[in-house]
Amino acid sequence: MFEAAQLGRKASKEEFEAQAPALQTALLQAQQAIRAAEIPVIVVVAGVEGSGKGEVVNRLHEWLDPRGLRTHAFWDHTDEEAMRPRHWRFWTRLPPRGMVGIMFGSWYTQPIIDRVFERATEAEYERELRRIEEFERLLTDDGALIVKLWFHLSKQEQKKRLQRDVEQGRMAHPLLKKFAKKYDRFVVHCERALRMTDTGHCPWTVVEAGNRRHRDLSVGRTLLQAMRERLERGAPASVSATAPASDSQPGLDTGEETSPRLTVLDRVELGQTLTVEEYEARQQSAQDRLGNLAWAARKRGINTVAVFEGWDAAGKGGAIRRVARAIDARLFQTISIAAPTDEERAHHYLWRFWRHVPRAGYMTIYDRSWYGRVLVERVEGFARTDEWRRAYQEINDFEEQLGEHGVVLMKFWLHVSPQEQLRRFEERAADPRKQHKLTPEDWRNRDKRRAYEEAVDDMVARTSTALAPWTLVAGDDKRFARVQVLETFVARLSEALGE
Amino acid sequence: MFEAAQLGRKASKEEFEAQAPALQTALLQAQQAIRAAEIPVIVVVAGVEGSGKGEVVNRLHEWLDPRGLRTHAFWDHTDEEAMRPRHWRFWTRLPPRGMVGIMFGSWYTQPIIDRVFERATEAEYERELRRIEEFERLLTDDGALIVKLWFHLSKQEQKKRLQRDVEQGRMAHPLLKKFAKKYDRFVVHCERALRMTDTGHCPWTVVEAGNRRHRDLSVGRTLLQAMRERLERGAPASVSATAPASDSQPGLDTGEETSPRLTVLDRVELGQTLTVEEYEARQQSAQDRLGNLAWAARKRGINTVAVFEGWDAAGKGGAIRRVARAIDARLFQTISIAAPTDEERAHHYLWRFWRHVPRAGYMTIYDRSWYGRVLVERVEGFARTDEWRRAYQEINDFEEQLGEHGVVLMKFWLHVSPQEQLRRFEERAADPRKQHKLTPEDWRNRDKRRAYEEAVDDMVARTSTALAPWTLVAGDDKRFARVQVLETFVARLSEALGE
User: Fold this and answer.
1) A448-485 confidence digits (pLDDT tens)
2) Which of B41, B83, B239 is the best residue to mutate to test the A interface, defined by the most A CB atoms within 10 Å of its own CB?
3) Is A356 at the interface with chain B, CB within 8 A?
4) Which of B131, B348, B405 sits opposite A84 (nearest CB)?
5) Which long-range contacts (CB under 8 A, 24 or more apart) does B275-280 make?
6) pLDDT tens-digit profile of B461-473?
7) Which residue out of B35, B401, B407 would a mutagenesis test of the A interface target, given it has the greatest number of A Cβ atoms within 10 Å?
8) Where are the alpha helices (DSSP H) in B37-182?
9) What own/partner pairs with CB < 8 Å and gap ≥ 24 does B72-80 have?
10) How far is CA B136 from CA A197, A350, A371, B132, B140, in A?
11) pLDDT tens digits, residue range B78-118?
12) Quick one: closest CA in B to A405, which residue?
C-alpha cells in the first residue's frame, strides 16, 4: 500500500511560498464553518518514525485558529490510564462539536507496537483493529469527521533522517532506534492496520513524507478537502465517503498544485527493452517452467487467479496469450469482462466474480476484472462516489478470502506511454486486419488519461497488499512486457509451491 | 439475549385465523412493491434445532408469491463448495434485485457448529463473525434488505419437541440429537454470534418458537414491517436501521395483535415478599459479606460497575443506599445521571460515561445510565430511530471493553406494577416530606408506560449478555427488592473473586 508514497514527490521553496498563504486562508474559513456547523473534527497523525509528525502538528497549529484546536499526544501511559480500559484515554480526549482535535499517536500506536514486538498474536491484533474500526464508525455515525493521515518514509530515507538527527545532535524519541531496526516488520503490520481500517466513511490518506514542504502542503490540502466535503454533506450524516483518496487532490480552488500529480505510473521505467534473442530465450525458459508449475499446482490443489488491467492497446491480449500457450488447456480458463449482463446487473457488482471463482487446482485469468469498479466506473461516473470509495475495502476483503483459501493472486497493470499508445492506435487504424480492435471509445478513454492515472494511483495505493501485490508492467516494449508477466507468474507460483 | 423469547407467548387458533388472511394480503402487496423497487430481500432463517424452521419456510412459501421467492438450504456441503472459499456458496445464491431469497441455515450455521464442537477457537470464531458482519454490510450498502430471524426454544421445550417427534415416528435431521446434547454450549456461542452481528442496519429478530401460530404470525409481521420500512427509505440506501427490534411490533395496520405485547417484565413475579424478620436477617448477612468483598476486590484491583434503571418510585434510591451502607465510603462513588451538561451534549452520548470509568479496585454505582439512550431518549424521541437502534451494539461494545478490563458489571431494572406505583405516587403527594420527589414528569411518564415496557423488553433482549446480564428486580415489596439487589451484588462479586 505504500508504493504510491515512495515517488519522491517534492515542492520547491517557491511553490510552497506561493501556495501556503491561500491554503491557510481557506483552512481558516473551513475551520470557522466547521465550528458554526458544530462538527467535531478528529485528525489522526500516525506513521513511520522520523517522518516529522511533530513538525506537521506544529504546522497545523500555525495554520489553524488555535482557539478551536487541541492536540493530544499519546506516547506514554499514566497510572490513571493503565487502570482503565484502553480506549478510555481516547474517549476522554475527544474534541467537542465544532472543535478540531489532533491525535498525535492515536489509538493505532499501541496495537501496532504490541504486534511488532510480538506482545500480541495476529488474532489479538485483528481484534484490536476491529475495535478501532467500530470506534471510528461510532464517531462518524454521530457526525464526526475523522481525517486519518499516515506519514510514510522509505527505509533508506528513514535511515538518512535518523543519521542527520544524530549528527545535528537533535533529541529524538528514546525508542526511535529500536523502532528503526524493525522497519520491515512495521511495514507488514502497519499495512494490515491500514487495510483493515481503510473504510469508505473513514479512509486513510498516505502522505509521502520525504520532502517537508510537499508533506505539509499535502496535509493542508487533505484536511481542507475533507472539511469541505463534510460541510457539504451537512447534518449529522451517517454513511458515505468523506475524505479524499490520495494526498494530492486535484480541483481545489486554492492552494492548487502547479504541476500535475505524480502517480505510481510515473515511476514505471518504460524505457526497458529486450532484444529478440533475449526475448526468445527468456520467454521459452519461463514458459517451460510455467507449464510444469501449473501441473504441480493442480496436483497440490492450489488455485491461481491472475488479473489483467491496463491501458487500451497496452498489450493485455498478447501477454495473456503468451501465458496461456505455456499451460495445458485443461488447467485454465480466461474470462473476459465486458459490460455486465442483465442478470449480473441485478446483483452486487462482486457477484459476477464470485460466480467464476475457480475450483481448487485450476487457474483463472481475468481480462479486466472487479477493478472496473474503481477504474472505468469511477472515471465514467457509473458508480456513485460512496460506492467506488467503499469498493476498495470490499475488494480487499474479497481478495483476502481468496488468499485464505490458498489462492495465488496476481494483478497486472499493463502500462504504456501516451506516445506509444497513439502509435499503436494509428497502426491499428491503418491495418485492415486490426481496425476492429480500435473503437471510438478508445479515443475517448485517451482523453481521460489524467483521470484514469489518478484512479490507478489510488487503486494501487489502496489494494496493493502483501497478499496480492500489483505488478506494474513496463509495456512500451512488448517483448519486455510479456517476459515480465511470464516471469512474475513463475516467481509467484514457485514461491507458493515452495520450489 | 434470549430471556425475551421465553415468555410463553401464544396465539389461539381463532386469533391466527382472524389475522392470517389480512397479513398475507399485506405481504403480497409489499412483495410486489419490493419487486417494482428492485430491492433484493434476504431472509435468514436460523436458530435452535427443533424450533420448526422448516415449517416457517413452508409458511412463507404459502404466504408469498412463489414466483418472486427462492429458498436455499445450507446444511450439507458439495465437493464443488469445499473447493472454494466458504462464502462462495452464499454469494452464488444471493437473490437478484426484486426477489426474496430465503436462506435456510445461512452463513451462521457452520461457524457456530465449528465453535460448539471446538473445531474453531474463540479468535477464529470472532473472525468469521466479523467477516459475516462485513458481508451483510456490503449487501445492505448495495441496497439489499436483510431480515434475520432467530428461532428460540428453551431447553425444556426443545426436549419435549424432540420426544414428540420420536413418538410420532417423524424423520429428523440426522444430527439433531447430537446438537440437543450441547444445548447450553449452543446458547453461549449463539449469543455471541447474535451480539456481534446485531447491527443497526441489519438487526436480529429473536422469535419465540414455542407456539407455532404465534411464531408464524411473528415472522409474517416482522417481514412485512421490514419490507415496508425498506420501501419507505427508497433509493439504494446505505445506512440507518431497517428491521424491527422485536418480534411483535405494535402499530401494524393489519394482522395486528389483539392483545398487547407480552414483555420480559410480565414474567417478573411481583407477588414475592419478605417478612420484617427475614428481611433484617438476610439484609444484615448480605451487607456484612458485601463489605468484605469490596475490600477483597480493592486488593485484587477488580472494578465493579452497577447500573440502576427502573420505573419512577420503584425504589432505586433505597436499594442504592442499602448497598452503599455496606461498603466503606472510600471504595465507591455514586453517579446520578440527569440531563447532560452543555459539555456533555457536545460529545458522543457515551463520552460522559467513559469519563467516569472508575480506576481499578473501585466501585461505581450509576443511578440511571447509558441506557437512557434506548429508554427515555427513544420513547421521548430525543434520539432518532437510527440513533437508538445502533445504540444497542454501541452499548454492548462499551460493556465488552469494560468486561475485558476485568470490570464486574451488574445491571438492575427495578420493576413495580402500575398499581403499586400509583399508590406510592399518592403517598408522596400526601406527605409534605416526600412531595419534592414527585414531579409532573413522573405522571407524564406513567402515561407512556406501554412504550417504556416495550423499550425495556428490547433493551433486555439486545443487551442482556453472559458478561453483563440484566437482573429484573421484583420491586412491589421494597424489602424483597433490596435483598434481591444485595444478594446479587454478593453473588456476582464472590464469583468474580473466585470465592
Assistant:
1) 999 999 999 999 988 988 888 999 999 999 999 999 99
2) B83
3) no
4) B405
5) B276/B479, B278/B479, B279/B479, B279/B480, B279/B482, B279/B483
6) 889 888 889 999 9
7) B401
8) 53-63, 79-82, 88-91, 109-116, 122-141, 155-167, 176-181
9) B72/B101, B72/B102, B72/B103, B72/B104, B73/B104, B73/B105, B74/B103, B74/B104, B74/B105, B74/B106, B74/B107, B74/B109, B74/B110, B75/B104, B75/B105, B75/B109, B75/B173, B80/A359
10) 17, 13, 21, 6, 6
11) 777 777 778 888 888 899 889 999 999 889 998 999 999 99
12) B85
Q: Round the CA-based radius of gyration of chain A to a whole number and report it.
A: 24
Domains within chain B, CATH numbers bracketed:
3-262 (3.40.50.300), 266-497 (3.40.50.300)
Q: Which residues of A191-213 are buried (b: 16+ CB within 10 A; e: fewer)?
A: bbbbbbbbbbbbbbbbbbbbbbb
Residue B72 bridge partners (DSSP)? B103
Q: Would an 8 Å CB–CB cutoff place B467 in contact with chain A?
A: no
**Residue with grid cell 483518496, as numbered in its chain:** A245
pTM of the predicted model as reported, rounded to 2 decimal places: 0.76
Model pLDDT for residues B320-332, shown as the tens digit of each residue: 999 989 998 888 8
CB contact under 8 A, B87 and A354: yes
Q: Contact A245/A226 with Cβ under 8 angstroms?
A: no
Distance from CA of B462 to the nearest CA of A (A): 18
Contact B40 A347 (CB under 8 A): yes
CA B297 to chain A, closest CA, distance in angstroms equals 14
Task: Give the residue from A104, A121, A134 showing the smallest Cα distance to A196.
Answer: A134
A289 Cα to chain B: minimum distance (Å): 26
Residues in A closer than 8 angstroms to B83, CB to CB, are 301, 359-361
Question: Chain A window 291-330: which residues touch B at a Cβ cutoff of 8 Å?
Answer: 301
Query: For A150, phi and psi rounded to 5 degrees?
Result: -115, 120
CB proximity under 8 Å: B 100-129 to A: 121, 123-124, 126-127
